[in-house]
Records
---
Amino acid sequence: MRSLPRWLFAMGFSLLIFGGKLWFIDAAGSDLPTWDQWDAEGEVVLRPWLEGWMRAKEIFHPHNEHRVVTTKLYALGLFVANRQWDAFVETTANAAVHTASALVLLLLARRWLARPWLGMFAVLLAVLFTLPFSWENTLFGFQVPFYFLLLFSIGHVALTLQEDRFSGRWGLGQLCGALAVLSLASGFFSALAILAVLGHRFVRERRWNAQQITTAVLAAGFAVAGWKLKNDVPGHAYLRAHGPVEFGHALLQLVAWPGSATFPWSLLLFGPAVVFAVRRVRARATEPAEAVLLGLFLWLVLQCLATAYARGAGAVLSPRYFDLLALNVALGFVFLIREFAGRTRIVLAALWLAGVGAGLAEQSRTMWRDFVAPNIPRQARQEENVRDYLRTRDPAHLLNKPWGEVPYPVGETLVERLKVPVIQEVMPPSVRRSVPVGNGAPSELPPGLPAPVRPVALSTWSLPSHPQRFHWRSALQPDTSLPVLRFRIAGDLGNPDRDGELLVRSASGEVSVVPDTAPGNRWKTANVFRPAGEWWLEATAPSAGAWFAFTEPVEVGRWTWVAEKLLKYHFVLMAAGLALVAASGWSRRRADA
């Protein structure tokens, strides 16, 4: 029972972060693949898989400087499970990966911080892992390599350095090291950090055991493999720092984040890390908890050095790097609490948290105003343009468009990607071609009802009153379609005081299509899981004085449906998280009584 409060708190903490990230995705995301996804996922992975010529070469094919093997396998796995290429499925799963990193840090912090400070650290983590300053990583499915790099690198360092003997945890740490190497070009930095910590311990303690020697050999192997796997991109040379001054300025900006608006004064935020590093280097012995902290600190330093060099010419503070820099902030709090004591610690913690809070608020506000808010209507136009192209096959819907109105920088290339039949067949619901079930049915709509984005399959509005009610049946549809059908419905369907019926039928059964409330003179979405086998639609018109209309259905994958439900009910997850955190506090008080 003593462990119950801890696990309730961990579950509540995770749900709060996961629900908060889903809120952001729901508010500002899209299910449409964007930018790099069309190449690294669609062209390099999904197309070979669907056409039957997938090889290991495609998985290891470089993407810019990186070989994002874990990301490609992850994307392929999600696609195979869902049978639909949906960015919402990816971003929802990505949110879970990022939440896992936060949970790992919280569990590690139990070795670093006492209870009062541990609660503050949990709040800081919740803020760092939910605010939209790193908006690209949250909203774009292909940005998961940064989450993988963070999770696997933390796992590699922590699980390797926590113990001085062979164990299952140590073995899991080596697996994390291999996965980190296969996530991004800088994935081998965790191995370098471990080598540095082991070297420091050998110099100060004058001993190495068999586990440490084995660890050093494996870490050296990861480092060599990572160096060999990285890919040089000559076209990116202009992004590198030009000289030591530019490099140094970029490096200082990175370590001072999130205080970009108050730079260089914000360099004071990095002060606790400097104090920690100096004291640990001078220490005669290093405890496992301190070894992990030192390893994570060195890993962050290496990340900042590499970023300052590779992107020092201007893109060093790209939001895609902020999730890695957030770890620097989290560790800064730990360093401050561990390296200072008494009233000095309280005063410095208050000042440090005020500076960090102001910086995070400014970063989040700037990113929302300058990038996220303008991107929301752009995504709507992207969906409209891709949907119109898939409906008409007219390249004019994708060519010569203003920047941002198609989900790829070059319209001609996007047309080539979308010409591929197997790619068209796996498009997400927002742009996917609807199933043509109209079968010549009446489709006239009442005045004042907005035209839907999908063709109307049937409208009973214009049908004359007749003693014998109108009955309609669609053409037979194959069993190869996805399991969920999505309709847009208007009129009186769903009104308990009105008759009329819409059914999805097959030889194995039938499902009624009914919205939760009658839509009236607007369009409302209804999703149903269709019965197995070849299927068709049947509709019976309501009696006089009532009507309904529905669009051609769009096929939806099972996990797309799950992801959209999670996004829609993000507030339920957050409320459950708050309840579990409160329950953990109550349970702890009971246990301490």
Note: The beta strands are 456-459, 471-473, 484-491, 501-506, 509-512, 520-529, 535-540, 548-551, 554-556.
---
Amino acid sequence: MTRETLAETLEDIALLLELKGENPFKIRAYRMGAETVMQFPGDIVTRAREDDLKGIKGIGDALQQKLHELATTGKLEFYEKLRAEFPTGLFELFRIQGLGPKKIKALYDSLGVDSLARLKDLCHSGEVAALAGFGKKTAEKILEAIAFREFNAERFRLGDVVAPVEEILTSLKEHPDCLRAEVAGSYRRAKETVHDVDFLVATGNAVEIIEYFVSHSRVTSVIAKGPTKASVYLADGLQCDLRAVSNAEFACALAYFTGSKEHNVAMRGLALSRGYTLNEYRLAPREGSDSPEAPVFESEAQLHRFLGLDYIAPELRENTGEVEAAAEGALPRLIELENLRGTFHNHTVASDGRNTLGEMAAAAMEHGLQYLGIADHSKSSFQANGLDEKRLREQIAEIRELNRGYQSEGTKFRLFAGSEVDILKDGSLDFDDELLGELDYVVASVHNAMTMPEAEMTARLIKAVTHPKVTMLGHLTGRLLLERDPYAVDLPAVIEACAESGTVIELNCNPWRLDMDWRWWKYAVERGVKCAINPDAHRTTQLDYLWFGVRLARKGWLTRADVINTLDLAAMEEYLNLEPIR
């Protein structure tokens, strides 16, 4: 049981109650409960299991009982009965971009839409377009969203699989017959989305390990089970595969099952050129070769050295030049999580965040950060309670006051006063230059009009990033992984504009975004563009997203020197042309 499961269950209950037309206050109570569960600073799952939720604001008596039942039994009778009132296929509609509870209710009540297949048919037939409140354009957008969903049906965001994957890995490592265990595949390479997850275990008792794996509490069904490998499904449909090998085979197997197909082809080619064959179990002399027997490798690093390579980090194994660089001793020293000294682009209750300035600052200090940039939304993002000029100036004053308090206490920490300023359709910014000049830094981002033609969108972004008051560009392509495609934009042109103006490009490490895409960072760095790893945190717990940011930065070949928020506080104040707090 995880925090996410508790919150998702409450959210689903709210949706179902809305479909039933229940009391809006009751619906709101479940939504508030879900938010409280997600932002609670302590171990909410243990508190729920121990029936110790009394006094937590946002979780009343009824929710306390339900969360306790869910945490202790893994099920909630109220939720199961509520789900049973609706066709199973109806729940597929919840995952379609642009379909909220009101639209789903209208489709269900008026047209009997109870599955994606039926919705698709009725969109094609014109019946959805004829429904009051919909229209032809809405029907077309629904069809586009369904097609996008179907295309990505068997993929999962990296952020969504971390909890179950790490839990299963930990349990495997704790098994007495496990000598070593690791996750391989695209998960270990830090791909932004994964199709399935590969586990590898070194053991002398494969049968016992396989049986243990398929009986894990996360497993809902077994696809296949043999003496050395097994495949299972988890509750959300994620396929997990386990392969058991001997300890002597583990290093070669880990290298093989981690690398992309293209990387493995390059590695096999390198081995052949040296008189060896490389497969998932071993490196052996090629038939007819006079090459000596290879040693038993204790680690991937030893295997790489034997082949004349520096160690290649898992994130790089995509055949984008890493094998050649490793042979030449030219691999970069990749950034590490502990290199970060602060971060930017974080929200508070002033806009659509869930924590106060003080709470966000305290959480940042608990993470060992020396500074935190606050960038609440600007006024045009009305849907996110964006700040107007008066409210932003009040926030700037509050930040200054908090900083004076940290200074007087002798605390080496600073809040930077920023804003996530909307880039308007014509490329101008949401605030005038006078107000922008009062900020410590500015994040410029697109939040609307995302369907503009590529040339217009590119011009829009270039105008914004070349504005002298803009420090960094937020979530460059606007993508939401598995939910929304990037908008049309000429990335090289925008990157070149940022290089010329000295504008930083954000690596937004919210796992729904991970934007700018890792595939563009080498290109950007070659042109002199700096990166800022930003969590886009809307609550204190989302500062943990920095972990995803560092993984994706490594995948983009980024070093400590490429990322501005590895600078310490004094260096960052100098970078932003700010005076130290007196």
Note: The first strand starts at residue 156 and ends at 157.
---
Amino acid sequence: MKPKKPFLMGRKTLLSVALTMTAISSSAFASDKETITLIQMGDLHGTLVPHAAIMKNPDGTEYEAASAGGLARLKTVINSIRDDNPEAILLSAGDLTHGSAEAMFTLGDAMMVPMNAFGIDVYTPGNWDFGYGGAVFRNRFTSFGPKPTIPGNLRTMTSYISCDDVPVIPGLTDEASGYTCDEITATAPYPTPPGMGVIKATFPAVAANLYNAAPLPPQAQGKPVLPPFKMLQRDGVQIAVIGITASIVPQQADAFNIGFRFTQGVQELPGLIEKVKNLGAELIVVQSELGLSQNIKIAQSFEDIDVMYSAHTHEVTLGALVVRKDKVIRTTPGERLSHKARKLLRKGGAIVVETNRDMYVGRLDLNVRGGRIVNFDWEAIAVDESIPEDPAMLQLVAAMEEDFIAGEDGLVKRHTFRPGGFLPPGLNGLQLVDDLDTVVGYTDTLLLRHHVLEDTLNNFLADAILNVTDNVADVRSVPGWENGVDLSMANGFRFGNAVLANSAITLRDLYTWFPIAPAVNIADFSGASIEGSLNTILGAVFDRNVFMQRGGWYVGLANMTQKLDLKNLPLTSSSGRIVETTIGGQAIDPGKRYVFASCYGHGNALDEVCRTGGGANHKFFQLADPDDYSSEITLTDPVNKVGIITGPRVKQVAPDNYLHPVHALRRYLDSLPDNTVTAAQFGAGQGRVVTVNSKIPGNPAQPESVQIGQPNNTPDVTFVQPPFGAGPDFFSGSIDHDD
């Protein structure tokens, strides 16, 4: 990795901002009366405090940051932009209330308290904002419609933080600042008890593609859950911000989706664009959680869209993309727009930008004349060590962190996560009784979901679950499982903190890698169903039709290897992109039953293990002592097998003391020499997933970038995932347009 270079921001460098706290400014349009400044932050994933990160220089080269992000640094950057332009609009999209232990064990309340102090002008939810169920989502984000009571099992988590716990901080949460805190508890006929409601968003949330569905009453079904847009005015310019939330929620855990219907948003856009234009909109911004690939396509397809603010895919556009029809031009950071980019902009092209978690804040300065964008300046501002932490926000974050850090007595406040069906009293569910900064291991190599296919972190996660479950004696007592566990997988999540090489791994890090509450489970599957599910996942990652892409990267594999042809197989009679799969060093047998251990999303039908369907004989792992991750593990049957979701109710399926992936990771780290993850054992270069050219006898391996199609399949080679998929161009359905 190359060392970081000074990041130019208009006439100032990032370093000068950090040292002098002067305003972050843009040189191009600072004195223009029709300059509209958009501030963009997205996919924060419940991250309150700084963490290690791999950052990018403007030229796309990378550097290591031992401490990046965190809400206090974000606040510094945003305050500085507002000092430069008090009329700046703060936009946020995607996955705000999920992604950390603090968020999970409080159902997002720990995140909402500080986020309500940012002054967000418009927010669009992401898929993980639905992760605590419909009641939590509606009480938090909706301004109209039903406000269901918080279910009994969830009240355990919502009771950890209430508005009474918000400290009064001058200039941030005091009365003069305008800060408010609200919990909806009085909704009839079954009110949520005081102190057990969720912290409500005090900023507006918009989504054009989210509707009410059963089990709500028929008169409510089909009606919007959120307003589709928000009208704003800056410097005499009318601005419409249209929201599109993630459409993939129905493909996630079933409990996320109760009472909601999602569309892709493209059917709603023509009517909404016409409506906001009739309301006087001169500038139309769409902020969308569909992901970069789909957002590029939408921006190309609707000429009235001026700015597409993208979220969900965790890419960072160092240079903004200017798109129109089938044209995509990447601008160069710090340089004037090229003639081609200006020409595309004049013809009605849209600006597409995306930021990555709390590690970047986007600033987009638009020069608007006569209702048209004639020029712009974009910067993805790196939020690294050079940015000082805002003292007031630092104090507020510390108040939210207090219960997760050991006190003077060395103890931490107990936190319990109770999934569906778990009701008080009793210590049932996932227990957190350790300081989040507890060191649980070490690594001599970078741990980060940094690649779209094989990844060192995913190798480690998958191996950990395989090792721990295979050492449970009960497994071999099940008929047909006498040889133990055959394979495991780690889901292709994009979120999670980086742990740099030669660093300690903390409990906090483990929970950012698994910031959900799945239970580790096991079942047996045919080889055909395993390979079929993996082909489906590959399609969702690399489909040339961007609307068929789900997002996320490929899964991690344990005791498995695969050869993939992402480019040529779609042209053949093959049913997918997999050329060869081995399990335990042997070619996969479609008819053989394989024992597969991984994770189960609470509320799902008992058919899956880690996105692989068609399983049988599902069982769960449980701890003898829920407070002790190292206590004895036994195998047990599901608590319920059928009728798991009935109306709004979700039955308990996993046992009271279910084994969580974080438990498995800690046990595995304890078993490694010196508790250390090594590149030699888990490095991505082991060849668990190899791309090949299946047109050549012997299926020779190819570099990933060549096989996926870069740079032809991406406008920016620094992207992790090529937004145009992989395979023949004509599979995208695109027709080249001559301008």
Note: The chain has two domains: 8-391, 452-493+516-669+682-729.
